[in-house]
Specification:
Layout lengths: L3 E3 L8 E2 L2 E8 L2 E8 L8 E3 L12 E3 L15 E7 L5 E7 L7 E4 L4 E5 L7 H8 L2
Antiparallel strand pairs: 1-7, 2-3, 3-4, 3-6, 4-5, 7-8, 8-9, 9-10
The chain binds zinc ion (ZN).
C-alpha cells in the first residue's frame, strides 16, 4: 500500500521516494532537512551528518515547500500532516516533534483511527479535545 503525504497548507507532496521530507528548525539554528519513514510506527530517520540530533531533542517541523509550521494547536509537542491513501481518502497524521518519543496517530474526521508507538497513550486526551469538539 502506498500512501502520499501532503502539507495541510499548500498541499504540496512531502513524500519523495520512500521517505517523507521535512524542514526542521530550532532556536539558534537555521534548520536542516529530516527524512522520515512513510510507514506509520517506523521511527527511523535520516539527516545530514553536519547536524546532530540528540536523544530527546525537540524540533519544529515545517513544510519544505511553503515553510508552514506543522504544529498542532494547543500543544508544543505534536506536529500534523495530511496522509492520502490509495483510494485518495485523506487522514490527518499526528506525530511527536521530540526525538525518541514514539507516538503516531492516524485521525479521520470523526475519530482516532489508529495509533502507533509505546508513547501513544500520552496524547489521547489532548487529541480528542483538539480534533473532535
Ligand atoms: Zn506547504
Amino acid at each position: 500500500m502506498k500512501n502520499d503525504f501532503l502539507c495541510p497548507n499548500c498541499r504540496g507532496y512531502l513524500s519523495v521516494g520512500d521517505r517523507i521530507v521535512f524542514t526542521i528548525k530550532k532556536k539558534g539554528w537555521s534548520g536542516g532537512i529530516l527524512l522520515l519513514s512513510p510507514l506509520l510506527g517506523d521511527y527511523s530517520y535520516e539527516n545530514h551528518s553536519s547536524y546532530k540530533i540528540d536523544p530527546g531533542e525537540k524540533f519544529e517541523f515545517h513544510c519544505p515547500i511553503c515553510d508552514f509550521d506543522f504544529s498542532v494547536k494547543g500543544t508544543d509537542n505534536l506536529a500534523r500532516i495530511i496522509m492520502m491513501d490509495e483510494a485518495k481518502k485523506e487522514f490527518t497524521v499526528v506525530f511527536s516533534k521530540r526525538e525518541g518519543e514514539r507516538c503516531t496517530y492516524k485521525i479521520s474526521d470523526i475519530k482516532i483511527e489508529e495509533e502507533y508507538g509505546e508513547h501513544a497513550p500520552r496524547n489521547l486526551d489532548l487529541l480528542s479535545t483538539s480534533f473532535f469538539k
